[in-house]
Amino acid sequence: MNKIEVAFRKLEENYAEFVIEGITPAIANAIRRTAISDVPTLAIDEVAIVENSTVFFDEIIAHRLGLIPLKVDTETYDVLLECYEEGKRDDCVAMLTLEVEAEKPGTAYSGHLKFAGFIGEFARLASAEVKPVSDLVPIVKLAAGQKLVLEAYAKVGVGREHAKWQPVSIAAYKYYPEIRIIKRECGEEGKKCADACPKGILKWSNGRLDLIPEKVEECTMCRACEEACPEVIKVSWDDSKFIFRVEGLGVIPVAKVIETALKRLIKRADSFVETLEKSIQTRS
Amino acid sequence: MIIPVRCFTCGALIGDKWQKFSDRVKRGEDPSKVLDELNIKRYCCRRMMLSHVELIDEVLKYETYG
Amino acid sequence: MSWKYSRDDAWLLVQAFIREHGLVRQHLDSYNKFVEKTLQEVVNDAGPVESGIPGLVIGLGKVYVENPRVKEADGSESSTLPMEARIRNLTYAAPIFLEMTLIEEGEEKDRAKVYIGDLPIMVKSVKCPLSKMSDEEQVKVGEDPGDPGGYFIINGSERVLIVQEDLAVNKVLVDYGPSGSSVTHVAKVFSSTAAYRVPITVERTRDGQLHVTFPSVPTRIPIIVMMRALGLESDKEIVNAITDDPEILNELYPTLIEQSRIAPSVEEALDYIGARVAIGQPKEVRIERAQQVIDQYFLPHIGLKPENRVDKAYFLGQMVEKLLELALGRRSPDDKDHLANKRFKLAGDLMASVFRQAFKQFVRDLKYQLEKNRSKSREVNLHTLARADVITDKLRNALATGNWPGGRTGVSQILDRTNYLSTVSHLRRVVSPLSRTQPHFEARELHATQWGMLCPVESPEGQNCGLVKNLALLATISIGIDEKEVYELLIHRLGVVPIKEARERGVKGSKVFLNMRLIGVHEDGAELVKVLRELRRQGKLHHEVNVAHYKNEYINEVYINCDSGRIRRPLLVVENGELKLKPLHLAKLRSGEWSWNDLIRKGIVEYLDAEEEENALIAESIDSITPETTHVEITPAAILGVVASVIPYPEFNQSPRNSYEAAMAKQALGFPAANFTHRMDPRMHFLHYPQKPLVKTKIFDLINLDDRPFGQNVVVAVLTGGGYNIQDAIVINKASIERGLARSTFFRTYEAVEVKYPGGQEDKIEVPPEDVMGYRSKEAYLKLDPRDGIAFPESEVKGGEVIIGKTSPPRFMSSFFDYRATTKRRDTSVSIRLNESGIVDRVTIAEDVDGNRLVKVRVRDPRPPELGDKFASRHGQKGVVGLILPAEDMPFTEDGIVPDILINPHAIPSRMTVGQLLESIAGKVASLAGISIDATAFEGTPERQLRNMLQKLGFRSDGKEVLYSGITGERLEVEVFIGVTYYQKLHHMVADKIHARARGRVQILTRQPTEGRAREGGLRFGEMEKDCLIGHGASILLKERLFESSDKTPIFVCNKCNFLGWYDARRNEYVCPICGDRGELHPVYVSYAFKLLLQELISLGIAPRVILEDKVGVV
Prior knowledge:
Chain A is of the alpha+beta class.
């Protein structure tokens, strides 16, 4: 087996771009899929409407609240994760309240959500804080005199269940491009070729076609250049090397998302091994 | 009606950026530039902003009726 | 000159047009004219009411229509507005007052302004206060300023009067006779006055003889006899009335000689007719009847008085001449489908015809009341004489049912409020009264004259195809101006010689027709036409007057029309090969100094009807102007109607696809009206996050469609979806749905009225007590508020649950059996429809016109998209959701974009909806570049430009991208076409259609399972299914389906007499009605329908016998 190598091109709180080498598309995809659908996060799942005199129906407001990403610090997240993995999601429910009364026309924002503590038996959460990633998400606009009072209960869940629990907006990769210029000195043909590339990876001057090295990774392998001049250029890719892009929603740092995804993937594989062993044992 | 919280397609949070976007575009700025500056890059998210109609303002006018 | 008429200029003009006209001007103008003018005319026509008592007359004076108001049950009155009418189920109507004078022996006895009835008021017409309100004021009274108006509110429901297409009345149309008959040529005219319509036909038979037929005379009358009866004594006079052309005269001679003999004098001619209408009467009576018939029923549009007879003779002559011209081959038969031969009846005309009938009845009643009152020698009071209900009820009934005098049905329809577009389109609809079951191929086909007048795209498929049409964007319908003014102008100022004089003096030249009637001759028709057009362009002649000059070797005719109901369209005037429109005019328009009307007044733009268009050479653009060009199109895109205008790049689509989309756009969910939160429509949908399309057409800015969107921009990939998007299905991203894509809410409003019956009994809205008749289970009433018997708002309700509890007094004691039961009150509660559920959203409690309490409960049902819901793009590409695929299984791009929808590639090639592909690319460009792309018909952003832009934005110019499988993680072999397309969610949703049943209800009569979802019906095992089982030889299954599980029933047949008997349970014995106790009864299992048949036959006195035999063999 090849050695797996990882090189980060960019790593920010909510965005990561890195190259992985030495895995198959299936593994890369497993990471991607897990990041999207199987990394637990916190999102509002139940809403008790106390008063709603706005133009929006209760279900629309509840739907919107659910989609507001909620931020937790990493320590709290680990506890929540544990809670979820132990199958006790009802024991780590974050309660938020919202009370907006408009004296003059205004808007109820996500910032109006007040964290009111955790409910349930997961005592270690006592000191945690849950708040929306952004305070500026409008929930509903109110006319003068309208009122919105509610209690929202955020639970841990995974993206597979509902998209609101996805920790990332983007988790995607591409194969690592390999561009081969067959005929460098190609005259006018080369200009056509260079112009065909929407990303501007090719440079043509004085009848000579060249790659711009720092832009090669931008290649989408769309083969537009190949179609323009099949004799001059050949685009292929390395399907054991991937350029990954992950964009987080700010719920937890993307690094944490990837880490958790991998851990959950491994855990799953482990539990599979375990089950397998058990069943082999019982058979023999 | 009101700006959706997330981009339908990719799930990126966009609801919080609408007010800024709409204000700046109303002031006459180029929507494309505003979107770039708000870090809304993908076409799925951009269409959420560009094609949104804040109809709730119209609906709210009727709240004084009846 | 560097200025050139550009697309922008064109749309500036269109905008000016729309701003001034709105979208429903035809209805509003027509109705306004009705209220302001026609109403008075109808009254004037009815004239003074003469009673049966000599010298006693009621004079009718001025009509007044007040403002809309409600008349409450307690008699009080207050002004009202549409929103109140809608919510309280009122009729939005205003009282009509009529000045009446009682005249006795020529002396005025009493004078009063009398209330004669209620006139339904068209929303936003002159009589509607909304028309005078600003947008803010309209909002304040709960009205949507964007609402076009043009409809009525009858008993709370919005009703449109559909424009009715009709063959032009009073116009002579010639044609060949039907093949196989002796008639070779026919000239026909529908002579029509406001009140009635008489078909008059002149026929030429194979022997060259001419006859005229009209109703009320049972036989055909020789033409010469008819002319003579009309007062033309000599042959010379008759010939003068017909023609001055020797060749035509030649053709006429045989008839003249032959028929002149029949009746050489006027008296004999009259007697000839009289003998056929008053058979067996003395001569004086015969002649009098003949005169009456020709005055009343022959060509009534010319007049009803004896002095009109000569004019009628000339009109008949006009018919004969036209007929003979056809016979001589000088002209071809008239084209019945030519728009010049059609007239369109608008709301005002339709209202006028009902009102006329109603008023006639009112007058009859008035006369009767007057006589009755007088004979009882009471003091006559004008107020008590007039019975206002007659007019009120007649008008309201016609509007409420759509049944019009003349037997037309479906004239008024409930306004379509699915979305804004469907509302507007409904208000611009035109229907032809031709029968939908007959082929009428020519009438359904698109006629060249419909260019720019009627939309070539928007017409339904199937039986109404081509009969239901819609107005094109710039088309208007003439309202009609007074013919007299034009006549005066022609005769006295423009040198038209009156026809009689011309024939006598032998003046030659062009025949001049005014509103299709030959009025005279002008020496130089071309000059006359030129002068008239010049006058019109100078604003000295009303713009509604249209002129046409037909000239060839034989024919030289000038047609001048100023009647109502002609479709017309505006065109830019070209004089001497140059546009009259100049940049200066556009600048004035832009600055607001000028309006559309100024352009018309100045003759820069003029309206042409189909007739005048025959004279025009219209250039499609200014580039194709030649010295002969007379006009230029404002913009070619204006040939489309409002709905078709919404389609981006329509010229790239296969034409039927555009028609499909035009039909589907009217089913798209969106934002129907700004005031929808307050509306209590029986059914209503609303899309939670509607978006304006990124790829727009000009119409969106013209009518503010951006604020009334009807779909969402969706990322669409053209890709197979694991077999789940085969056959037009679509695969939709689960995450997108969860984030709010295509989410909608359905509203249904339930209603209950607490009726107060005469006699003190009344309904009661309450939680029904347990002892009422028909009490459901206790659980059914659980959602009701015990205090008022209405469900709590925001309570969840399921099918069958009561939301308005109501009890009614016992039914009238009708039969002996019910006696005990009828003393108890009945449960008449309103419950949620079976198969439906929702949340109680809004409750209104109001008082209806009769003072009864009216409760409306609106229930909402959230509808996130689900498997089987219908979606469509704007290119006639519809499909149902075939799979909701989790986001991680969807293919993705390297940017992480996961398409919202996957459509099957097979949907494209055979349908050739290239427009959709262009829209997809344009949508992608639009979102990336932050602009909206224009895709108006014939002038959309060209493909080349889109491709260049897309390339610059970093994507392949053909819109394809590399996708990776979400399941295997591998790159898809081929690049996939992906882009942003506007998709509509259509109102056909699975939740409204899903249905299954095992056992259940049966019909009372046949005991077979009921039919239809609403009745929990069974699924029909039809004829073809039956054949299938026969083919398989599955006879026992067949018996099970059609018999055991259907209406199996035992009957008892007497083996002695072979008649039906029965089992008497009380005595536990079998009885045969024939054989008595000696009967030998056997149970037989038959279909209940068969038992029914036997009994029906018995009831007819037929004795059906059932012969029994022993069962042989198995089973």
